[in-house]
Each structure stands twice: as structure tokens, then as C-alpha cells.
Request: fold
Amino acid sequence: MSCLSSYKTKAVEGKEGLSTIVYRWISGPECSDEEWAMIDGMLASRNSMSLARDYSKILVAELEGKIIGFSVLQAIPYCGPLFVVPKHRGSGLADNLARQTIDFLVKNGARGWIVVATSPHVPRLCEANGMHKLPYPVYTTEVLNVP
Reply:
């Protein structure tokens, strides 16, 4: 495997004795097509969106040269907020802004995007443009204070 050097290792006890899990970062543009296909296949098996290769870093955990887990950092466009002054609400302006934003994303190769429904009007707008609500919670942080 060819991307980036080892990040950290950890010895684990298995059926065959002591093995070492190797943790390393791989970068989409620098990793092999074989590595990328393996990650993409694992994502597809979980019905997850494919990654944008140019904008992804992946921390992989390998045991005996095989990827056994990973954590992904990726740039996914976040759309919002969308705002229309009260005088022009209901005029179709929000629909036009959303449609042109989506056209821009598609034209520029975005493989997906995220919208947070911060008002009761947003779900209708998202669904009208082919988006779907996730069936699981979404978490966020503004300042990361992890020990």
C-alpha cells in the first residue's frame, strides 16, 4: 500500500498470537486505485455516498496488510443559510436560489451536499429538489474540546 507513512501502531492479541494494527493516513489524490476501490467498496456496502477523491483524507487501520477500519475526513458542500427578505417571500425567489445553487454544485462536480433545515420551509424546498431526510441523527460542534 502506497499512500502515506504509518501514523501509529498498536499490538493486538488474536487467534494467531500477537499482531500489529497499523494506523496511517491516506490521501485520495496520492493513494493507489486499488486502495481507493477498497474504501469505495466498503462505503457502497453500507449505502454510503462515494467520497470526492480530491478532497478526502482517510485514517485507515490495517491488520496484516488489510484494511479493517477507517475514519474519513472529507469536504462536502454545506448549503445554507438561504435567506429571502420578508417582502419577497412566497415569490419563488427561494426556489430559484436553491435551483441555481444546485445547478452550480452539479456543474462543478459535487457528489452530494448537506442542508440543515433551520426553518419549517426548508424541508419542502429540499424534497422538491430531490433531497431526502437522513434516518439517523446528525451531530455538530463549533469548537472541539475533546480531551
